[in-house]
Amino acid sequence: MTHSLHLALGAAVLVVSLAGRAASANSYVRRRLSLSAFLALVYVAGNAVLWLVALAPEADARIRSWEQLALTLAALNALVVIAINPLRENRMPDRFPGIMQDTILVGLFMLIATFVFREKIATASAVGAVVIGFALQDTLGNAFAGLAIQMEKPFRVGHWITVGGFEGRVAEITWRATKLRTKTGNFVIVPNNIISKEAITNYSEPASPTRLQVEVGASYLAPPAEVKAALQEALANCRRVLKAPAPDVVLVDFASSAVTYRVRFWVDDFEKDEVTRDEVRTAIYYALHRHGIEIPWPIQVEYSRQEPPADPPERLVERARILGTAGIFASLSPREHERLAAASRERLFGHGDAIVRQGDAGSSLFVVSSGKAVVTVEPGGEVATLGPGDYFGEMSLLTGEPRTATVSARGDCRVFEIDAEMFRQVASADPAVLERVGRAAMERRTELHTVRDSAAAASAPQVEATFLLRMKRFLRLS
Q1: 232 phi and psi angles, rounded to 5 deg
Q2: Which residues, in sequence order, are CB contacts of 202 under 8 Å at separation 6+?
Q3: What confidence tens digit (pLDDT) does each residue in 209-242 have?
Q4: What SS3 state is found at 345?
Q5: Count H helices, E strands: the chain?
Q6: How far out from the chain centre does Cα 346 lie?
Q7: One domain for residues 331 and 363
């Protein structure tokens, strides 16, 4: 082969590499074509030097052999990269990650080097194989492990895994190591030969969703059925928890100071596991608090526990005052406010918790004690925000009607709940209470509905009488 032909081949590979690099939007392709361009440039420069400088025949032949190997590697590298990778997209194909492309390139190069340049590199190969074998013992182990990972595919780029005590999203798989991006934003480089020896947990396979779990202890005094119902209520208020597959609660242990329950639920992305667990634990705290279920802690000393009074006198006075500010109870006397306060119970809701849901059956009224609550009506959306002294649920209390709206806590929200049985006891002691409360409820209902004609207005006394009869029947006071 003449010097001019040598230069032409090298120049052709150089031009193709540079043109492909300039035309490609793929950073991986550009990086690999830079290698081809460098090797082709070395080949062209070496041939130019040999053309100008006369060397001994043996030295000239040896140098030309290595130049031809460099040109072969440059051409094969450009061919593999351009044939496999998309030039207009900045990504690698899923079936041919970088390590697989390297395997193809090395395999082709070794075939050509063995069968085409066998005689020219035999001596160097014998010596080099021994030296490289000792020098790259660990590196080759990592490389073969990386190749095995690509063939078996226990995980892929983008999967969330735990391996060797490290957890993160797979960012890159190379010959030497696998790079994980942790939730703190750091990169962990795990050698492939370590991964090949460790158990791997893949949270992204077989497919989303992923099941998570948290454990919580509850008092031995609380029946398991009540605890499970409260925990399910908490899960229903967690927006990140999937409705299907349905979450569940199982009793897992009778510990020294608590009965342990495991709450199991599903999420659509394992990356959100920490914020979802936080949301679930927060909802569990508020749900157990509302239901009066204690979350115990280890007891170091013995003591005789005495339950405090349900409602100290000073709290009842404040509760009676707040109930008196509610429009539906404004016409009642202070004494009747105190009776209602004694009959009510305080409940605490966390942000986003549904106090009542539209369409659910109900038989109680709520008065906001502190915080705020949002009223939403489907399909219209949010219609009002309630604050201290505002009330809702009067029709469910007085007639048992289903809830007409969903009311949810905005931030921490405390409410006083008065159910039908409690109210019946207060009303039975003074029948006038029922009439005054019923009249206030009717006035509010009339305000919420537009009077269509005078005939409807004329029938108001009849409607009020009918409404009073419905209240008496529901409360069993007739």
Answers
A1: -65, -35
A2: 154, 155, 159, 160, 161
A3: 888 999 999 999 888 989 999 999 999 989 999 9
A4: strand
A5: 16, 14
A6: 33
A7: yes
